Amino acid sequence: MQTLNSLRALCWSHRRDPCLLNVCTALYSSAVSEKTFNFCSKDMRRNTGVCDFKVLEAHMTLHSKNSTRNFCTSSTVRNCWSCGSSRQLFFCSSCKVIQPPIENVNYFELFNCDQTFALDTQKLQQRYLELQKSLHPDNFSLKSLTEQGYSELQSALVNKAYSTLQKPVTRAVYMLQLQGVHLEEGTDSMVSPAFLLEVMKVNEKLWETQSREEVASIGQSVREALKDLNEQINAALNKGDLQSAKELLARMKYFSNLEEKVKEQLTESL
């Protein structure tokens, strides 16, 4: 088993490679990050320099600082801010005016797709393009400031939801969050030291190799590992085995990073 001093030496020897350094450091430490945000963006200030009250209220609701968010699984029936009639997710069913985002709306519902890890990404992309076509701020340039602001918020929400569901890692993280399970920023405690050393060895091979063929071979192995993890996570989520899904997801994050590094090296070698 690696001693603490030897692990520190590994970290020092790989200090110029952030990816390898992170893996080495992860063997005996974890990282925690904090995220901050602005409630009122420059795009919402307009000429007056002040946020429209309704837009600011929606923005604050959409980006609550509460770290223990509760996610709803279906949209709540609300009234249109303009005419008072019942509204849908994006527009009023009566006057057709754009609406503010619904608090903590389920991303799967937003795209009208099944809440499953093995979702149809082509259908997801098609729905995304349709929504952005109707919600894009350019369509509301002649509307009121309130409608322009809601358009920006809805468009930003759709972008965020799409980027979350499009990739397996972020999709799995989100699905666990829907069940009240949160994967901490530092996931190192979820994987064994032996696994971390295995990942470090693969990183070292990528760092040292000058052969495009060898990089491609490593990439193939990484993709096969990711495919297997995808199947295991899907099975675990379908069974409701959230702890297993969480542990598998921690491993998937490392392999996803390896996949990105393989892509970068193949691009650089062109």
Topology:
Blueprint: H1 4-13, H2 18-26, H3 42-45, H4 53-62, H5 107-110, H6 121-135, H7 145-166, H8 168-178, H9 193-208, H10 212-239, H11 242-268
InterPro entries: DnaJ_domain, HscB, HscB_C_sf, HscB_oligo_C, J_dom_sf
GO molecular function: ATPase activator activity; protein-folding chaperone binding
Domain J: 106-178
Considering the chains and any ligands shown, give keywords for the structure.
single chain, 270 residues, mainly alpha, Helix Hairpins, Monooxygenase, 11 helices, 58% helix, disordered N terminus, ATPase activator activity
Describe the 3D structure.
This protein has 270 residues and is mainly alpha-helical. The chain has two domains: 46-178, DnaJ domain (Helix Hairpins, Orthogonal Bundle), CATH 1.10.287; 189-268, HscB, C-terminal domain (Monooxygenase), CATH 1.20.1280. It is built from eleven helices and no strands. The chain has helices at residues 4-13, 18-26, 42-45, 53-62, 107-110, 121-135, 145-166, 168-178, 193-208, 212-239, 242-268. Helix 4 packs parallel to helix 7 (145-166) and helix 6 (121-135) runs antiparallel to helix 7 (145-166). The longest helix has 28 residues, at 212-239. The two termini are 40 Å apart. Residues 1-75 have low confidence and may be disordered. Residues 106-178 form the J domain. It is found in: Cytoplasm; Mitochondrion. GO terms for molecular function: ATPase activator activity; protein-folding chaperone binding.
